[in-house]
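S.,

Sequence below, as promised.
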Amino acid sequence: MSTSTIAAIATAIVPEQGSVGIVRVSGPEALAIARRLFHAPGQQAWDSHRILYGYVQHPDTRHLVDEALLLIMQAPRSYTREDVVEFHCHGGIMVVQQVLQLCLEQGAKLAQPGEFTLRAFLNGRLDLTQAESIGDLVGARSPQAAQAALAGLQGKLAHPIRHLRTACLDILAEVEARIDFEEDLPPLDETEIQARLAQVLADVSQILATADRGELLRTGLKVAIVGRPNVGKSSLLNAWSRSDRAIVTDLPGTTRDVVESQLVVSGIPIHVLDTAGIRETEDRVEQMGVARSRTVAQSADLVLLTIDAQAGWTAADQEIYQQVQHRPLILVLNKVDLVQADPIQADLSVDLPTSQVVKTAASLNQGIDALEFAILDTVRAGSLHAANLDFAINQRQAAALTHTKAALQQVQATIADQLPLDFWTIDLRSAIQALGEILGEDVTESVLDRIFSRFCIGK
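The prediction came back faster than expected:
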């Protein structure tokens, strides 16, 4: 356990809106600090896992800071497996900051980002996959992202990783036993070893298939609405987000900058970017907007190329298409309410890289459901298609599993080349180490710093 005591505000503080603010203290002096700062009237027992009612006051002047509750959790039955106390104060900024300052004056140190969870990991309360899942749960942007994080917190990723590591350790033990005691043991059954390696590899590949799904759930999908001026891009954004995020007029070039909106479609966070109409212009401000539009389109995960159903496919549409054709693309045919005939005919003879064409009448809020279905179809055809488990790994875990897979494949190649058993053990140990890194059993301090630095301070 760490010898220092740390403190931090553990709740989001919103001026004039937060009803409760929590200051968390963890470490060997946590209870002593609480006794100096908290006055519990009457005969309330200072027992573990009890809530005391009373007052936070300055230890010297007895100046009253707040009427509050004190939650006591003594080691090892706490989040960090250290003594932990929490001051549950009235919300806002001033009160919780004053309570925190008093804790620091009594010897606690201000916690670093993620330090409470880091201590929980170092003290064996959590493995590294569970610790990372806590960070994902706090930052979840959709119910599905929260559910995947919760599955990781419950050990649904750690369990199969431990199983794979144990399987590799068993194989390594059998190989090393033949090296050390070759004369006393029967020959190694290579066919059985290869079958076991194949099963481990299959399981590794199945878990790796969740990496893209995890990335989508955590970071979301960046979708850029692009097209000529006045084709209805801003109307499409407003209809989709059910708000007036963008100014809509009949004048081309109204949108001068990128307008953003956050949506959730079937559990996937969608970061929608309405861009300025792409055209040649002498207006300096509009030129800057067009340049930003091109940049956004090049970096988007998905492009919604929007055209005017009245005008059909124009030379300007073709020019924009050539700039974004290497990106995943959906063609949005807007303003279909203004034409009588089916507009998707000879006018759209261009050879598009996708069969996804969606008709919308954004000004009437029509076609949005079809657009969302088309986006989901595009996603399922790509990264989400193989993700059939209830958890999802992150980039660090995916890198370690990729290393594991390569090492095990090398073991298979070594067996096929009939190399000595000593060569088998090299890559088996490499695979075992990579699996241990996922759980935190073989991980460097720099990796831990990188992981927990992304946490909020109070977690």
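The first strand starts at residue 6 and ends at 9.

Coffee later?
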